[in-house]
Each structure stands twice: as structure tokens, then as C-alpha cells.
Amino acid sequence: MDRHPSLVDDLVETATDALRLLYVLMDADPGLRTPPVRRRSLPRATRRVILSRLNRLPLEGLIEDLHRHKRAWKRMAENLHPFEYAGRYPTAAVAFALVRDTTLNPATSAHRAVLAEAAQHPLIRVEPVDVVARPSETAASGAVGPGDGDAPAADRAASAERVVAPDRAADRAAPADRAAPADRAAPADRAAPADRAAPADRVAPTGLAISSSAALAAPAGARLVTSTFASRVEGAFANGRPGMALDLLRQRPGELVRRLVHLARTLPADSHGVLVEALGTAVSDVSPVVLTAALGQVRTPPGDLRLFFPRGGTTRVWTTVDERDPLPSPLAAALAGVLVAELLRRASALPRLRRAFLDEELSNLAAPGSERGASSTWLRMTRGSAQPIPLDDELRLFLHWQQPPAQRIDLDLSVAVYDTDWRFVGLCDYTRLRFDQDALVHSGDLTSAPDPLGATEFVDLDLAAVRRVGGRYLLPVVFSYNNVPFDRLRRGFAGVMRRPSGLFDPSAVEDRFDLSGPAKILLPFGVDLETKQLRWYDVNLSAAGYRHSIAKYAGQLALLSAALEEVHGSGDRVSLWEVACWHAAARTDEVVVRCADGSVVGYVRSPDEDTTAFAHRLTTRREPDRVWDTDAAHRADFVAVLSADNLTPAPGATVYALHPRLLDPSDHNLIAAPALLSPLTPDARARLTTR
Fold this sequence. Notes:
Elements: H1 5-11, H2 15-25, H3 44-55, H4 59-68, H5 70-80, H6 90-99, H7 109-118, E1 124-129, H8 135-141, H9 153-162, H10 166-172, E2 221-226, H11 229-238, H12 242-249, H13 253-258, H14 260-266, H15 272-282, H16 288-299, E3 305-308, E4 318-321, H17 329-348, E5 356-359, E6 376-377, E7 386-388, E8 394-402, E9 411-418, E10 424-428, E11 434-435, E12 440-442, E13 455-462, H18 463-468, E14 473-480, E15 491-498, E16 512-514, E17 521-528, E18 533-540, H19 554-568, H20 576-587, E19 590-594, E20 600-604, H21 611-619, E21 626-628, E22 638-643, E23 654-659, E24 669-671, H22 674-677
Helix pairs in contact: 3-6, 4-6, 6-7, 11-12, 15-17, 16-17, 17-20, 20-21
């Protein structure tokens, strides 16, 4: 890296990219989920390369990026030493001064360079900081406090009393019987020599007076304060000025689309047209993942609960009562129309297809989102996706794991049962191996999983017996009993399958959820016995106060799962079915659809039917034009299905299949779900000029 600094320019486009690079250099997780075990000292050449790259980033964006990972950057600054190169890289030094809340001393050359650079940016202001000094010496020295450069002697004396920091003034104040009179003159032998006295008008570039009596009192300090883009936007909303927030968000198309629903609810009715126009201008520079997320939010009406998934190394979820008003229908339709039209426009620019073959069951799979990779499914499904469970009345929920050498890892599989109204019915875990006789039967508690086979716990279900006691929802929870995070496992996963008649190989089961990341308690999925579906949740739980008792989690599990079912079960979120239909409608005139009942029908674009109308007819599954059979897949260039069973796509066809089964990657271009959205990236991504 030191020999080829241009590589850093190519790899590092944001401060977060630089942080990932630093983590890699310290053998830490580039996903930033866990900090380095030990921060290593960096060579000077490496520090200069990193600081030089940060210095060429726009200051406002650099400051915001540092604050996104504030704690990590505050620690990493101890290795970069940005003030050592403040004269050479002042922009980077200013950003670090802000993120670390550094008290700047105008008497040092490095801090003067930072203050001089900050003075060139209108959004940054300098605020004086009271510096602790000895009261007996402050009054005698005539030290100049912040902003007191031309103050009379009496005012300077009063200012000297204010030099003590406010939160420590009471502790450091001199007793009443030792307080010096206001007119007490300094002793002659302590007066500063005339030839060394600093002129009264000597003022630092920031307006802070510099005193020559630094030996007797600490010099006045300053801190940099800025108003970030996010704070200005939030301030506009808080002050009841959504129009001003819209004007600010126009500068950042991605942020405008992310705040689209908030803007739509707060703007007055006469500004709705302005919002639609602003969205039409912004969408061309926004990633498809953000567009599909916004589309789902626009179409989803308020419900009983709201969900929040904060960023971080483990996925937690918070809920609150949804008190929002629904969007006006005309506005929601107009915004959704702009978003869909942009995605269709991008798809139209892709190579044409001879025929597309789609599976209606893709409507149960959520479109890929910008979610973490700490936990993942064997099937690579997005949170909220649903899968049909086997139709048998006898199922098995299982947990399999293998621990590393020389470390014992004790995992436990517990299952909670709820009725239709999410009332707790019962449980089955290592403390209660049977629920309602044979409705749920636990295999028993295993406390380690050594090589080479590991260990497996399972709970066998008799669905008829569960329904007999009023059970509808089954929630399996995986606990790390001895508090070892899942990322220490050599392998680990939980899943569901038909109950086998004998031994089974858990690694061969497809409907499973991988255990990974720093979490210790996981709710991987929920099973709905009424709809015969399994929905992927991927929610980590906190052990605070509950430890490993699923009974104590009963209320929390019910609240979280009810919210997840309400949000993801509404059908308003963007699905893989819609994404596949956008590709098909924009790139071909002939689309074959395999319906949920197994029938195969076809849609043919009429000569006067535009792309938007054809896409709407496909996604809403209007009356088809003809009946086909599965042989239609033989001439399809693009295939998107749930299962590739009984299908033989044409050689070279692009195929998305959740269950590819026996498809040969050498004969077909097998893709994952994110590859359906990635070709829809903007034609020219909006980039800041950084070089």
C-alpha cells in the first residue's frame, strides 16, 4: 500500500472505506461488526497515505462519515496521529478535531493550522472553552480569557474568575476567608517584565486572544462545532418547515428517497406536486435497493405496530405503536408510479430476451435489501420471506452445531407455542421435554458438540395435537447457554423438515438458517400452522434480565413476531415476483408464468401496450392471453422460479432458483436474488468529486 498509494485512491471512496482498510490491516472484521482485538501501530508512510486520502474528501461528507462510526474513529485516531500532519492534511485534522471534540490550543502550530482551515468553512464555528487555572495566579497574572483581548483590567479580572470550568467551579473556588479582594494588586516581583509583555491587541486568527503568561495559567482553548446535514434536516422538520427539509434533501437524492414517506406526511397538500417532481429528478441517481424499500413504504398503510432494525453487528428489532396517518391515495399512487417507472427504465436498457419464464410463488420472497450478513440462510432469503412447510402433520425443528477444538459450546433449542391472538400456550425446552404429551417432544439437552460429528438437538411436532390445544404459531429460539457467540462455531444452523423415520443428516436439509455473527440468542424463523408457512425473522434477543428461559421471553417474542407478521405478511412490500416481472416486461414481449396451482399460462404484449401497462398486467396477474405447458421454459432466456424441479431451461439461460436442485452451473448462468437488482443500478451514479 505504501508503494502504490494510487490503489488506496481506487479502493477508498469514503471514510468508512478507509476504516475497513484499517481494520483489515489490523486483522479485524472489514464488516466493522467487531473492533480489532489489538490495534497495531501503523508505519508513518501508511498513516500519510490514509490521511492524504481522507484529506481529499469533501469536508462535510468526511465529518458525517466519521460520525457514523464515531467510537471506532476516535480509537483509530490514536494510531493515525492526524494532528502530527495537520499542516499537510488540514481537512482531515479538522474532521478528527470535530469527531473527538478536541480542545484546541492556539499556541500550538498544529492547532493553529486546524483553526485556520476551519475558518474557511461556513458550517464550522469556533466556540471558546474555559480552561482550568489556579485562581491565585490567574488574578495576579492578568491572563486574558476567551474574547477578552481589549477588555479593561477590571473586566479581565472578572473574566479570570470565569476561567474555571463551570462544572468544577464550585469545587475549586477559594474559601471566603482566602478570597483576594477585587482591588488587590499583583506583587511587584511577579509582574511580567515590560519587554516580554504581549500587546493587548495580539489576537489569534479565530478571535481568541493569546496571552504571554502561559507559564502561570493555561492558555484559552477552543472547540470546533458544526451543523451536519442530518441535523439541519431534522431541525427543519422539528421547526415545522418540511419545505426547507425538502430543499435540503434535493442535494442528496438517496437521502430524499429514504425520507420520502416522512416528507409525504409532513408537506402540505399544495406541495405534493413539488415532492413528486423532486422525486422524479432524484431517482436516477439512487440505488435499486433504496428505491424498492421506498416503494414498499409508500404502499404499506400504517398498522398497529412499527418495526425498527438499527444498524449493527447483530440484528435487533424494536417496536412501537404506529400512530401515523395514512398517505393520501393520489399521492401514494403518484410516488409509487415514479419509482416503478424508473426501475422499468433501467431494465429496458438491459439486453433483450427471447422469452421469460416466471414462477408465481416468488411473491412469497421479499426483494433483497441492504441487510447485514452476520446471519444468513442456506437459501439466501431476505428477512420477511415466507416458505411453505411440508404438508405432513409430523415435522421436526432441529439445531445442529460443531464447536472448535479446545472450546466447549453449549447451545439449546427451545420452542414457544402461541395461539391465534399471540397468547402464550406453552413451551418445550431442556427443562420441559414434552408439551401436552406428544404434541412437542424434545430430544434432550446436549452440552457440547465436539469433532467430528458435532451435536444435534431437535423437537418433534405433532401438528394435529398442537392445533388441538389451540396452538397456531411456533417460535424456535436458539440460546448459547455458556454465552459463546455464534461466530465461534465451526458450523451451526437451525431448520425445519419432515420428521424422518430414522437417522437424518442435518447438513443436507435446505430449509435451514445459518448461525453466525456475535449474537448469543437468536429467533431465526416462525412457523404458522394455519397458513402452513415458515417466515424468516432473523432477530437477535438480549439476554438482559431473562438469561436462557424462553418462558421469560414469552411476552417479548409475541410482540416482535406479531409485528413481523403484520409488516411482512401484508403483501405490500416489494417481492422477487415484482422484480422478475419488471425484467420480463421491459426486456421481452413473451412471458410464461407457472401459477401456484401448477398450471402454466402466457402473457403476450400487444402492439399498443407500453412497458408500464404490460408490467402492471404481469405483477397483478390479470387474465392471461393463453395456456402453456412447462416445455415453454426450453426457449426461455430468463428463468426465475422457486424450484427448478421438472424444468429444463435453455442452455446459457440466466436462472434464479431458490432450490436449483440438479441444474448444472456449467450449462446455465445461476444467479442469486441480489443479482436480480444489481443490473438495475443507475446509469451514472452520483459521485462526489474527490480527486
